[in-house]
Amino acid sequence: MSNFRHYNGVMETDDEDGPELVDEELVEVFRATDEMGARAAVDEVLTPAGIPSLVHDRVSHRIPVPAALPGAYFVAVPVARAAEATALLREAIEDGALPGGEIPS
Q1: What is the pTM for the complete model shown?
Q2: Full strand arrangement of the beta sheet holding 22-32
Q3: ∠38-12-3 over CA atoms, to 5°?
Q4: d(CA 91, CA 85)
Q5: Distance between CA atoms of residues 71 and 82, nearest Å
Q6: Cα–Cα distance between 42 and 52 in angstroms, integer?
Q7: Within 13 Å and on the Cβ side, how many CA atoms surround 29?
Q8: DSSP secondary structure string, 22-90?
Q9: pLDDT tens per residue across span 23-81
């Protein structure tokens, strides 16, 4: 998984139903051009599989580095669940359930 961007994620939420990822090493496993596509990956694929995730918005928070792939929405999951999440997302993309989405390389 060395091609994926790793970072520590912090997400605090008042929503008791949502995942809480605090100080957990995360890896980006999905890229979408719009927020709706990223949310679909979370709501339709990852959450039903019990994989906690968060959406990282690089549209309004662009980083001026070419390798950072600015201008998109990324979905990150715990490193330990990355392989499972990637397989599920790849299957959803192939089935046409996540149009315009891609697995970052």
Answers
A1: 0.72
A2: 6-10, 22-32, 73-78, 54-57
A3: 45
A4: 10
A5: 22
A6: 8
A7: 30
A8: EEEEEEEEEEESSHHHHHHIIIIIITTTT---EEEE-SSS--S-GGG--SSEEEEEEGGGHHHHHHHHH
A9: 678 899 999 989 999 999 999 999 999 999 999 887 665 545 455 555 789 999 999 99
Measured between its terminal Cα atoms, the distance across the chain in Å is: 9
Instruction: Please say whether the beta carbons of 89 and 30 come within 8 A.
Output: yes
Structural domains in the chain? 6-94 (3.30.70)
Residue owning tokens 């694929």: 45
User: Could you tell me the two tokens for 59?
Assistant: 């549209």
CA 73-75-80 angle, to 5 degrees, is 160
How far, in Å, CA of 98 to CA of 79, rounded?
A: 22
> Measured between alpha carbons, how far is 14 from 59 in angstroms, rounded to an integer?
24
Tokens found for residue 37:
């596509």
